[in-house]
Amino acid sequence: MSIRKKLILSYAAMIAVPILLFGLTIALLGNLLIKDALPGAGAGGKSGHSFPLGSIRELFMGRNELASGLKFIAEHDPKLLFDQAFLTDTGAKLQEVESGMIVIRNDEVAYASPGLPTDKILANLSDGRMKAEHPGPPSGNQWDTIPFLSPDGSSGKLVIVSDMKPVADFFKRLLPLVLLTLLGALIVTNGLLTYFVSRSIIKPLYALKEAAGQIREGDLNHPIQLRRQDEIGQLGAAFEEMRVRLQASLGAQLELEQGRKELLANISHDLKTPITAIQGCTDCLRDGIADTEGKRQKYVQMIAGKIAEMNRMIEELQLYSTLDTGKLPFHWDTVDLTAYMIQLVNELRLDPRFSGTEVTFTPSAGTEQILIQADRQKLHRALMNLADNSLQYMKGETKKLQFSLDEEPGGLYLLQIRDNGEGIPADALPRVFDRFFRAQSSRSPGKGNSGLGLAIVKQIIEAHGGTAAAASQQGEGTTIQLRFPAAKPENGGIQ
Predict the structure, then answer these.
(1) Is the Cβ–Cβ distance between 470 and 424 less than 8 Å?
(2) Dist. CA 190–CA 184, nearest whole Å
(3) How do 141-149 and 108-112 pair as beta strands?
(4) C-alpha span between 98 and 59 (Å, rounded)
(5) Could you read off the pLDDT of 309-353 as tens digits, one per residue?
(6) DSSP 328-345
(7) Cα–Cα distance, 306 to 312 (Å, whole number)
(8) Residue 365 three-state SS
(9) What angle do CA 252, 256, 258 make, to 5 degrees?
(10) What's the pTM value of the predicted model, to 2 decimals?
């Protein structure tokens, strides 16, 4: 639930709960108080109403009905006011609704309901007060005087008296209790809702603040888990994603730094070996140890070979640096990969370094042309790196280097390079394409191996939109798997 919905619901509850409590208070307290103020009212009375205002409404309706009936009788059938049975029965009905009546004929009281302050009312009537009305909350007594003519022609008065004191006492006792209850309900409801809503917002904000402080101090190992679906939960998820990315970035940076340190150590080791050899050869030439032309040529060739090794390592460093920064330009052509591999295999067979090595190529069955977008020169460099790497670690008498090409679902082509070399250790296999990484078994001095060959291969293949993977088993050889996407037809013809 969003914070906006929570606030809307809390505001609605702040209004609805006090109103509900207000109604319940009137029903409960009023029902208790009205039994004292108006005997017979309430849940246990004749009216059967548990809500006190229902009893009060019936009280006034009963009074109005009786008063209207008496007024009608006084105007149209005043002889009933001389019937003592009628007066007694009507007086009893008036008494049930806290009322009464006085019948005056010839200035004498002919009938008065029991319990009425007759003298007081007559004194007020003698002063000319025909009605007693009290504005505002009802209190005290009120009466209404209705003149009539008797059958013998004499005049009379019908006084209908209502006792308003019980109703007034009821409201005087009820209203303060209701107001206090309403005030208490507002305070408790608003206080509790404000506490719980603010707590649901502030508590996760403190958690985010603590997490931000830990991130600021460089501690990225504590996950942020708010388990919420609102805006704060989304903010926490964004914080967690930021933490994970920072942790990954820091880990990559530390790994890169460690790789650079290893690179410096490896390069210094590999450069020191040919430099030492060159220095030894130059000392022999300078000191006259090479006293024949044959010896001098042998030392010169050795120097040239060591210089070539150093040039190769330096070139790989420059190439990888350019690939890593994305500044190396690629020149794309639509290449028939089958024809390209046939040409490459023929080149390897003629290479003196691969003499004694069985180099084969198995094209994809049933496919005449396999077209990919490639930079011929960069792809040649990647495949030569793989061939050289395989050649270095093939130690058996029979050396085999096998290339195969297959078509895969999804518009991909799989090029595999297999050798029967010593293989790669299982713990080193996941990292063979990492930058600056070299398995310990590959530390062969004098081979000019910088540890960047496979990393360069991965960079070049990924630049072609493909992927590079390795599978190996120690003692049985290694298989490098290169996958390329098929070229789109609109990209042009074969180059």
Answers:
(1) yes
(2) 10
(3) unpaired
(4) 8
(5) 788 778 777 777 777 666 778 889 999 999 999 999 999 999 888
(6) S----EEEEHHHHHHHHH
(7) 10
(8) coil
(9) 115
(10) 0.47
